[in-house]
Amino acid sequence: MARMLDVELDARDGAAALPARILTTRGGAKFALSAGVTLEVIERPEAIRVPGSAPHVLGLLAWRERRIPLIDPDGSLGVPCKSTPARYALVIAFEQAPDVQVEHGALALDQLPQFVTVSDTQACDAPQRWREQALACFMLGGEAIPVLGAEIFLRHLN
């Protein structure tokens, strides 16, 4: 089940601090997901290709006695997908409503996610490219990192 964000207080300034995962797509785009929607990393994922699936759906991945879609996040974001196998898969979850079954999928990545804690003091405007999709945005190392919802990747799978 998707978890709510764990909120901690940042001892430096008393601002709320939220855990997040920064992902770099195989095409080089950076974005963050709430830590509450990220479940586990699978090394060297092997997906079974499904004929007729959307180009960004790389196939079905065996995970915890079920099959979940392996998704190229670039394709979900409108960028061409890579044809080479992914090095990692990050399993994500999305719950549309309390009484609706949780959806699972996995994002194809070539780099491990970066674990960070973000505070309100890092908030910034999302870059123009991300304004329609970003739930929020924060500055890290001089770079604006948009926060996206898992539903962007788990809807429109076919």
TrEMBL record:
GO BP field: chemotaxis; signal transduction
Signal peptide feature range: none
UniProt-listed PROSITE patterns: CHEW (PS50851)
Ranges for domain CheW-like: 18-158
Coiled-coil parts of chain: none
Matching InterPro entries: CheW-like_dom_sf, CheW-lke_dom
Name of the protein: Chemotaxis protein CheW
Species name: Ramlibacter ginsenosidimutans
Lineage summary: Bacteria, Pseudomonadati, Pseudomonadota, Betaproteobacteria, Burkholderiales
